[in-house]
Structure formats: structure tokens, C-alpha cells
Design goal:
Two copies of one chain form a homodimer. In chain A, 73% of the residues lie in helices and 1% in strands. In chain A, strands 1-2 form a two-stranded antiparallel sheet.
Chain lengths: 331, 331
């Protein structure tokens, strides 16, 4: 049974070995190798493989579809960065900055096609089910991005709407990766469903933690200035929950601060301090930490529903250790 | 056995009946219904179904994948129009003009995902082969668009390079549609290959005819001003072949005319007249018509290689009548 490091290394090696990046015209595939070569935790393929070995199957059963999930994820980053006009990712210029918007659009399309090719190499006995899962992921992620863009210009996004958006934009792919691993392993329908629900809760918790760390991370470890979402007036869980728990006067102040366009760096630093002070009045940080904890507990409950006789204890430990580590928690 | 009109109507009805257009958020799916609702000849799904009944199978065998091919084709139009900054298509504003570039990118992505879902509904015994064909189409079309964009800024594109570009950008989808129809019908590998090669030649002939009609169409029937490619300095088969057959002085004049940015309508009309006069010196129109005729003959030869005992004479007549009609030719 393989641990996280082995699975991550297998993913790296698998991506590097894909023939497609050597196709012509090289200019079409260069952005793909650029983003896929930036490493990262490879969460999605790792989860697919961990799900597969959870049910006692060799990770090889889902290896190519797992790579497809990573390629798909990176395709969405290319297109999202064009749509969101994001200039940096992982500390490097985004594709539409390094090349241009057309390169990001078209290389993204080619990556989506390459992802489909990889997923289509699931073994034929589980192929229809794997494809159903993958295509549902793909549509869900598009729907999530659409909501995300629409929320930018809406002043009245509710917490429930925000949760539905991040479910589609983030959690569906996490849940779907586990689901595809389970399907490829030949797990029973009910167990695959529990695994999906587990992934869904975990995916939501990841996003909430992301939103939290943007403001409260240890700056030395974080690698960039904290409070980036506040500087960009981005509506995150913190902001929407913050509005929900603030009194009327503070809610108004928060809205006003988030309606101010970003100006000088000093003014922005000042704005982050003021927003943070408002958040502290309601103990927002602990409230959000509690919400993440709750999601983590709900995830745990989903996982425990899986038929214990169908899974490997070692496989479960590898999976839960990995997920707990990502969330900075212990299982 | 169904004729063209019946197959086109079945395509229209099938597209209109797809559940996906009723998904939320509606804003994501509105551009898809906008472009798919504009009708058109539905060449690709019709060809897939005609290929299926050529081998004596009911078109139902390939109906959903055929719809997927049409959705896929329309996805490529959305993205191409953004990349090419095209403002009109089929006499209507393009999606990025009617909405915005982000809508065209993201709705396009959702259409690609929807296309994958439809193709994935091929019957399980031919599913891996159908997916291989579809994924090869998808990558090929991206590669073709990349070459097309790169050729814009290259002064030295050869006729062979141009043919390879249109093979990827246009012919691969025509050929692949027939191929998928053949696979779904359970045709033999060699016959599917002949059908693909037939479609490839037909696809190339379509594009050359498109390039030709842009300048030489009967304006009353054409629905827009002729010579649009010349006005936009677009390198088409006419221009590249025109350069190849012109003497040195005329070649230089042609290059100069195509290097002039479009200005007033009068100047553009004058430019079209001057380019046309240069083309006429080498009888370019007949030369290109001959090239189309040659491709049509080559296509015919490919089709005749298919095992005659495996196909329906009526199915063959329906297919060849349709294709000949598209090319304004008799079989």
C-alpha cells in the first residue's frame, strides 16, 4: 500500500511521462507543461488513488483517470485565471500573462480534451460509471465558477448560496476524485456514495480553511501577504459570515470597506486592519474554525458509514492522515 | 431509413429536448441555447447518423453521441469567436458580443462537458472506441485552431501547411463524425477507416469550397458581402494558392494588398477588385475548383473501398446525395 509521498511522486512521474505534451504544435502544449510542472500537492489524483486502495485495490486501477483529474483541475485554473484576471498563481505569472488570453483559452481546451482521454482509459467494466462521475464534476465546476462570477456583483449573497457555490466549484472535484477511485476499485454503490459525501464535506472544509488562512495564516509560512481577499474586496466565507454575525452598524461598516476600490498599499494595509478589528468584535475567527471543525466531524461520520469489512484499515489510515494533515487537524 | 430532412429534424428535436439546458444557473446555459437554437445544417450529427444507417443500423444507436458532436462543434465556435474577435456569426452577434468574453469561455466549457456526457452514452460495447475517436477529434480541433492563429502572423505559410491546418480544424470533426457513426453501427475496423478517410477528403473539400465561395458566391444567395476574407487579410486557400501560381511581380502585389490594414469601405471594395483581378490572371478560380473536384474524387474512391456487402445501397445513396448537395455537385 502506498503512502502520500509515493502517490504524489507517482503522479509527478505520470504527468511528466504523458505523450501528449510532445504533440505538435508545441506552442499549444507549452502552457500545459508550464502549469502542470509547477508541482503542488496533487490532492485530486492522490485522493482517487487513496480511495482505490481503501477498497484493497492496486492504485494502478485508477492511475490514468487520476492523472486526468489533475489535468482537468489545471485546465480550470487556466480558464478561471483568464476570467478572474488573476496575474499570479503559485508565485508565478499565470498563463494569460506569460502568453496571452488566447493561449490560456485554447491550451485549456486542449487540457480538458487530454483529461477526457485519460479518464476514458478506466477499465471498460467501470467506464460508464467513471464517465458519469467525471462529466458531472466537469459541469459542476463550470456551474460553480458561474455563481462565483455572479456573486462578485451581488451585494446580498447568503451563506447558503456561498456554500452551494464552493460545493460546485471546489468540493465536487474533491468528492468526485474519491468517487472515481471507489468506482475503479469496484466498491459497492452505497460505499461510493458515502465516500463522495465524505469528500464533499472535506472539500467544503478545505475552502473555508483557505478563506480563513488568507487572513489568519502565519505570514512566514503563507508565502504572500495576508488579507489578499480583503484587499481585492473578495466575498469569502469570512466576509459573508462576518456580515451575518455583525450588528447593524458594523455590518454597514464592513459593506462600506468592501465597496472601496483598492488604492495605495498603505490604505489597503489600513483597510485589512480595520476589517480584522471588526471581525474580532464577533470572534469571527473562532466561529469559522468551529464551522470547519463541524464539517470535519460530518466528514468523519460519512466515512464511518462505509462497510468496514470492505475496506483496508491501513488504506483508511493513509487517507485520513492525509486529509487531516491538509486541514491541520488530527483524525 | 431516414433521409436528410428527417435526420436534421431529429437533431433539432434532440437538442431542444436535452435536460441540461434547464440546469441552474440559467445564465451559464443561456449562451448554449442561443447558439444551438440558431439552426444550421447540422452536418456533423447528420453524418454520424448517416454512417450508422449506411451499415444497416438504426440511427438511434448513435443518436446521443451525434448530438454531442453538434454541441461540441458549437462549443468550438464560441471559443474561436472569442479568440478571433469575430463579432457576427450566422447573421447574429456572437456570444462574447451579446454577453461578454467570460460568458463565451465558461459556457463553452460547459458545452464541451455536455458534449462529453452525450458521447459517453454510446452503448458500452463500443464505448472505448467511440471515446478514442471523440477525444482525438477534440485534440485535433484545438491543434488546428492553434495553427490557424499562428498562421495569421506568419507571411510564409505553404499550401501543405494550410491543408494540414484545415485537416485538423475542420476535416477531423467531419471524418470523426462518420467514424463514430460507423463504430456505433459495429462496422469492421477497415471499413471505419475508409469512412474516416472519405470524411477527411470531404472535410477538406468543404473548407476549400468555403474559401472559394467567400469571393465567388452568388451574392444574392450568400447573404453577406463577398470578399470578406480579402477585406480581413485572411490567408485562405485562395490566397496561398494564388501566391503559389502568380509570377513574382503579381505575388509581390498580392502580398502588399494583404499587408494593408482594412480602411474605408470604398478602399476595401477597391482592394477586393484588385485582388480578384490578380487572381484572374492565373485562372485561380478554376484551379481551386479543380482541386475541390480532385478531393471529391479521392473521397469517392475511399468510399468505394468499403466492403459493399456490409452496407446498404439506400444508406449509401442518402449519404452521397447529402454530401454532393453540400458541395453543389452530383455524385
Amino acid at each position: 500500500m502506498k503512502d502520500y509521498d509515493q502517490l504524489r511522486q507517482a503522479t509527478e512521474a505520470g504527468i511528466a511521462a504523458l505523450d501528449i505534451w510532445r504533440n505538435e504544435p508545441r506552442s499549444l502544449y507549452a502552457p500545459a507543461t508550464y502549469v502542470l510542472g509547477q508541482g503542488g500537492k496533487r490532492i485530486r489524483p492522490v485522493l482517487a488513488m487513496m480511495a482505490c486502495q481503501l477498497f484493497g485495490k492496486d492504485t494502478q486501477e485508477v492511475f490514468l483517470p487520476a492523472l486526468g483529474l489533475e489535468v482537468f483541475h489545471n485546465f480550470t485554473l487556466l480558464h478561471d485565471d483568464v476570467m478572474d484576471k488573476a496575474e499570479m498563481r503559485h508565485g508565478k505569472p499565470t498563463v494569460h500573462v506569460k502568453w496571452n488570453a488566447n493561449a490560456a483559452i485554447l491550451s485549456g481546451d486542449a487540457m480538458f480534451a487530454a483529461a477526457c482521454s485519460l479518464v476514458a482509459q478506466a477499465s471498460v467494466n467501470c467506464l460508464p460509471e467513471v464517465l458519469r462521475a467525471f462529466n458531472a464534476i466537469a459541469l459542476g465546476v463550470c456551474e460553480g465558477q458561474q455563481y462565483d462570477m455572479e456573486f462578485e456583483s451581488r451585494p446580498d449573497v447568503t451563506l447558503a448560496e456561498y456554500m452551494e457555490m464552493i460545493r460546485l466549484k471546489t468540493a465536487v472535484l474533491i468528492a468526485g476524485s474519491l468517487q472515481i477511485g471507489g468506482i475503479a476499485a469496484g466498491a459497492g454503490k452505497a460505499d461510493v456514495r458515502h465516500l463522495y459525501d465524505y469528500g464533499n464535506k472535506i472539500g467544503l472544509a478545505f475552502q473555508l480553511q483557505d478563506d480563513l488562512l488568507d487572513l489568519y495564516a502565519d505570514q512566514a509560512k503563507f508565502g504572500k501577504k495576508t488579507g489578499g481577499d480583503i484587499r481585492e474586496n473578495k466575498k469569502t466565507y469570512l466576509f459573508i459570515k462576518g456580515l451575518e454575525v455583525a450588528d447593524e452598524a458594523d455590518g454597514k461598516r464592513l459593506r462600506e470597506l468592501f465597496a472601496t476600490p483598492a488604492r495605495s498599499q498603505e490604505e489597503n494595509d489600513e483597510k485589512v486592519i480595520r476589517v480584522k478589528a471588526l471581525y474580532e468584535k464577533t470572534n469571527l475567527r473562532s466561529l469559522v474554525e468551529k464551522d470547519i471543525e463541524d464539517l470535519f466531524e460530518q466528514a468523519r461520520a460519512e466515512l464511518s458509514k462505509i462497510d468496514a469489512t470492505a475496506i483496508s484499515a491501513q488504506g483508511k489510515k493513509i487517507l485520513t492522515d492525509f486529509v487531516a494533515g491538509l486541514l491541520g487537524r488530527e483524525y
